[in-house]
Specification:
The structure holds two protein chains of two kinds.
Chain A: H1 6-14, H2 20-40, H3 43-59, H4 70-88, H5 97-105, H6 115-129, H7 132-142, H8 148-155, H9 159-182
Chain B: H1 2-14, H2 16-20, H3 26-38, H4 40-58, H5 66-102, H6 106-127, H7 134-159, H8 165-174, H9 183-195, H10 199-210, H11 216-228, H12 232-245, H13 250-259, H14 265-278
Classes of the chains: A mainly alpha, B mainly alpha.
Chain lengths: 183, 279
């Protein structure tokens, strides 16, 4: 059983058994896709980003020490990949937060009050309206079910900061969501 | 009292994220429960938080397309390929360089020539002064000749697996000087005849083998080879040799060959002719 932990698989990849990356892909492609999807709300872009993260893990496999958790390392790289991609697409406003909010909020709201659909749209819009900093802590804690200490390692900040950030992000989201809904 | 309650509210609300994330110890949880029981404002806030948190959990993520997996494995393959090339390039390059430095292609030839010159010199020195011991010398010469033949066999065997077709041709041509080819040489020739991917090398090998046609094993091998060959040139060459050797056993195999799919028309005519000539 021990040979199948994430860390031991990644260490095997590091030692030259590159095929083991396939197992890690099977384990993590969907959570990682989910993370990027919540961050960008763009499925095509998210697929590319997932691909990019796995490529980087192969390329920089020697940097994996095995001291920390594989998942933490993966999300850490994932954030970098996303940041690079945002920077690259800045001119095209690809992942621009405002544009994202417009894209999500617009169009789907028909006159009929599909309450649930509306709720979802409002929430999407509220999430998209958050800063990337707030959005990512909520995604990591809610969807990836990470503990604060793990989030702290992914983001390279201390645990106390994570706690404050989650609290503020939730407050911000609440404000956006419920004012939207009451509108 | 009022101030206390307000402080309490703020503290409690600060903990809502931890409460939702289930990160409170029992005491903290109890305190919050106590507070909520008596504070409708916080109750409302917590209800909102709870609803929001639950809604967040319901946010759907579409399934990634199957192409994502396909692309990943393709990327992995390409990456592996590139790594292998990088590795083998550096390793092979070094080995190749060392080999070239230590053992250039011409060294074998030079060594062989030097040996022959040396032998000639030895023979010359031994034979010229005293002709009376001619018999003894003749024996010596025979020994030397057989040693040269051995040398040629060894050279032939070492060259016949060379990646260069020219070198392999050279290897096969050495056999013209080998009168009594041993098993190893015959075997090497047949391996080349049946497996070499160069038509010319196979044709020359075929020719080389016919000189050992007295050997029954060689004849049998040639007959068997008929079915292995797919080049029309070699097939025709083999059929010719069968006629030349009057190898009756080949008729059966030749008939079988006629039934082979995709046989060249010219070859067909040739084989039919050969069968006629043999029977």
């Amino acid at each position: 059983m021990n040979t199948l932990t994430d860390n031991s698989l990644m260490l095997r990849v590091k030692a030259g058994d590159l095929d083991k990356m396939g197992l890690l892909f099977e384990r993590y492609n969907r959570p990682l896709f989910g993370f990027f999807y919540h961050m960008t709300h763009n499925a095509d872009a998210s697929e590319d980003l997932v691909q990019n993260v796995f490529y980087r893990m192969l390329k920089y496999r020697h940097a994996f020490t095995g001291d920390g958790e594989f998942r933490t390392w993966m999300y850490h790289l994932g954030r970098n990949v996303l940041n690079d991609s945002v920077k690259q697409n800045k001119s095209a406003n690809h992942f621009d937060v405002n544009e994202l909010a417009d894209r999500i909020g617009g169009g789907t709201l028909a006159d009929e009050s599909f309450e649930k659909q509306q709720d979802k749209d409002f929430l999407h819009k509220a999430m998209a309206g958050l800063s990337a900093e707030y959005r990512e802590v909520l995604i990591l804690s809610r969807f990836q079910e990470m503990k604060y200490d793990e989030i702290a390692k992914v983001l390279n900040i201390n645990e106390g900061t994570v706690k404050v950030r989650v609290h503020r992000a939730l407050g911000e989201l609440k404000k956006k969501f419920f004012t939207n809904e009451s509108r | 009292m009022k101030a206390d309650k307000e402080m309490g509210c703020e503290q409690v609300r600060n903990m809502s994220a931890d409460w939702l994330n289930d990160r409170l110890d029992n005491m903290e949880r109890r305190e919050i429960d106590n507070h909520l029981a008596g504070c409708s404002g916080c109750q409302e806030e917590f209800a909102m938080d709870k609803q929001l948190w639950a809604n967040l959990g319901k946010m759907r993520v579409p399934e990634p397309e199957e192409s994502m997996r396909v692309n990943f494995y393709q990327m992995l393959d390409e990456f592996k390929e590139a790594e292998k090339e990088k590795e083998s390039f550096s390793l092979q390059y070094i080995i190749e360089k060392i080999r070239e430095f230590v053992l250039p292609q011409w060294t074998i030839q030079v060594a062989f020539s030097l040996l022959l010159v040396g032998l000639g010199w030895v023979i010359g020195r031994k034979t010229s002064p005293e002709t009376t011991k001619a018999v003894a010398y003749k024996e010596q010469i025979e020994t030397l000749a057989s040693q040269v033949e051995d040398m040629k066999s060894t050279m032939m065997l070492s060259l016949i697996e060379n990646p260069s077709a020219t070198e392999r041709l050279r290897a096969v041509s050495y056999t013209s000087d080998i009168e009594n080819a041993d098993e190893r040489v015959i075997e090497a020739l047949f391996t080349t005849l049946n497996n070499d991917d160069n038509d010319n090398v196979r044709l020359v090998t075929l020719e080389a083998l016919t000189q050992y046609a007295d050997n029954p094993a060689v004849r049998e091998g040639l007959v068997k080879s008929l079915l292995v060959q797919d080049s029309p040139m070699v097939q025709v060459g083999l059929a010719d040799i069968m006629v030349k050797l009057q190898e009756k056993r080949s008729v059966k195999v030749l008939r079988k060959l006629l039934k082979k799919e995709g046989l060249n028309d010219l070859v067909k005519t040739k084989i039919e002719q050969s069968i006629k000539d043999l029977s």
